[in-house]
Amino acid sequence: MVENTDSSLLPPTVLSFDDNRLLPSLYGQHEEHLARLEQLLQLSIVSRGNKLLISGLPSNVEIVKVVLNLLYQRLKKGQNVDLAEIEGAVRMVKDKNVTSNGSADNMASGQLLLPDESSEAVIKTIRRHVIPRSPNQVAYVKALRQYPLVFGLGPAGTGKTYLAVAAAVSALINGKIDRIILSRPAVEAGERLGFLPGDLKEKVDPYLRPLYDALYDMLPPEQVERRLTTGDIEIAPLAFMRGRTLSNCFVILDEAQNTTPVQMKMFLTRLGQNAQMVVTGDLSQIDLPGGAISGLADALRILRGVKDIQVIEFTKDDVVRHPLVARIIEAYDRRNPNQIEPSRS
Question: Which pTM value belongs to this model?
Fold first, then answer.
């Protein structure tokens, strides 16, 4: 059956809420949450006090009903709602293939639950509780808790590194591991940085800055510094991992697309007892010189189907940065590589 797309012929759907005190948080400052929903779902939302008049395609109206009802329930529990929560809720509900058959009421009443502060998918650290905001992020968090080796693949802004650091910090503060080891290949992204002064830590710090940023989000600054000093958090350049056995630790290899096959094999075979290993990377951002083979791509081919290894692939739909980032990624994905103009020197 073809859906009638002329939504202007249909009367608006009315959605009402019984607690006016929660509406400013639900609608957002200057109704920015409603405006974002309109943009995401190509519909119209008009507020009339505690009532919303929603006009648009019936399928999108059902989605926005589910989203608003679920977020309203979150506010009733005393939890926060922001633009990121709005966008995450839309992703989660869309993934459930909501239709205009009354499922909105059923799902809002409990058949669909967004991850919140009480959810098993939430990663709890000292400074914040990290809530997955897409189905792939939920699957990734579950994989981090179930498998000793997890590959997180996908474009920038999908949370693959951030969630891995959050899981590592949570495991450390809960005593499940003794230390966190952070590693990253020292490959420059298209530019020559030249000689870097300082000791080993100062030389590799620029490459590990995204991991540090995530750490400071999870732990108070003084704890990060203290744990770096005591070795609870260790910075281990990939080239210095050879010969080690990594036990009772959570190991993260970031930007793994820039490893060679030899480096990747060396890293993966460091896994010891009671260790969790996470490898993150974006195969569209390989910076290896001379068209060298990526160790990440090579490992994914070799390890396909191996027991106790989980691969989670993120897409532009999982991007949780500025909405423009997803559109930038989509534009680059559409580009024909043969159209890239050579650099002029």
Answer: 0.74
pLDDT at 113 over 60: no
Structure tokens at 244: 């080690």
Residue 6: the pLDDT is: 58
Other C-beta atoms within 10 Å of 124: how many? Answer: 14
Q: How far apart are CA 209 and CA 186, in angstroms?
A: 12
State which amino acid sits at residue 301: R
Among residues 135, 151, 138, the alpha carbon closest in space to that of 309 is found at 151
Beta-carbon contacts of 297 under 8 Å, excluding residues fewer than 6 positions away, are 257, 283
Tell me the C-alpha distance between 188 and 267, whole Å: 20
User: How far is residue 157's CA from residue 320's CA, in Å, rounded to a whole number?
Assistant: 6
Relative to beta strand 233-235, strand 179-183 is parallel
* Kind of pairing between the strands at 129-130 and 123-124: antiparallel
DSSP code per residue over 25-79: HHH-GGGHHHHHHHHHHT-EEEEETTEEEEES-HHHHHHHHHHHHHHHHHHHTT-
Helix (H, G, I), strand (E, B) or coil at 141: helix
pLDDT at 103: 44
Q: What is the pLDDT of residues 199-233, one digit of tens each?
A: 555 666 666 777 888 999 999 999 999 999 999 99
Residue 283's identity, in one-letter code, is L
Under DSSP, is residue 287 helix (H, G, I), strand (E, B) or coil?
coil
- Is the CB of residue 257 less than 8 Å from the CB of residue 285? yes
The phi and psi torsions of 8 (rounded to 5 degrees) equal: -70, -20
